[in-house]
Write a structure and sequence with these properties.
By secondary structure, this protein is an alpha+beta fold. The protein contains four helices and ten strands, in the order αβββββαβββββαα. The protein folds into two domains: about 1-40, no CATH class; about 40-180, OB fold (Dihydrolipoamide Acetyltransferase, E2P) (Beta Barrel), CATH 2.40.50.180. The strands form two sheets. The protein has a five-stranded mixed β-sheet with strand order 8-1-2-10-9. A five-stranded mixed β-sheet has the order 3-6-7-5-4.
Length: about 190
């Protein structure tokens, strides 16, 4: 039903054309098979250290390669720093810092997922984008808060996808990690 896509270095125009063609073919395949009727909510599979997580695509604005991130003194634990993307300054979260995972070195697979909230964006550094998954909300199981340390409160639940159990990151919960204007006034 789905086609494998091989990406190569192309001009921006030819890359967009190839992506549009792939998306159109994939949408046609979904409509022809009827799979679109009960597809669920699209999620991005991502990896941090050796763990895999899911994040709903609905809030994703774009996915970029890791740019230069500027350190911000006295930032909250999860904030790696800030980045400038086409003139917009935005905070960048690093869940490895929050969860006290080993630092890890950026690789060619490291990405920043740019999420949109109201009029502003923010990024999350991930080691790798693993896949895209359709997941019905009934398949996400809530996890009692007492199961995990407070730092894992960004997990909305867990879902079994194939043979893997993955944590599902909650968008609203990620927002709580961002510095607020009240934090800035207290400084």
């Amino acid at each position: 039903m789905f086609r494998n896509v091989t990406l190569s270095l192309q001009t921006p125009e030819s890359a967009w054309s190839a992506m549009e063609s792939t998306l159109a073919n994939g949408a046609r395949d979904l409509m022809e098979t009827g799979a679109i009727a009960d597809a669920g909510i699209q999620h991005i599979g991502l990896r941090l250290a050796h763990e895999e997580f899911l994040l709903a695509v609905v809030h994703v604005r774009e996915i970029i390669m890791l740019p230069t991130v500027t350190y911000v003194p006295r930032a909250p634990a999860a904030v790696e720093g800030i980045l400038a993307l086409r003139g917009e300054i935005m905070p960048v979260l690093n869940l490895r810092r929050l969860w006290r995972l080993e630092r890890g070195q950026p690789t060619s697979h490291t990405r920043v997922i740019i999420l949109q909230h109201e009029d502003a964006g923010f990024g999350i550094i991930v080691d790798e984008i693993t896949d895209f998954v359709s997941l019905e909300s009934s398949l996400i199981e809530a996890v009692p808060a007492s199961y995990f340390a407070r730092e894992f409160a960004v997990l909305e639940g867990v879902a079994k996808v194939g043979e893997k159990v993955r944590g599902v990151l909650g968008f609203e919960r990620l927002l709580t990690l961002l510095p607020s204007s009240a934090d800035e006034e207290a400084s």
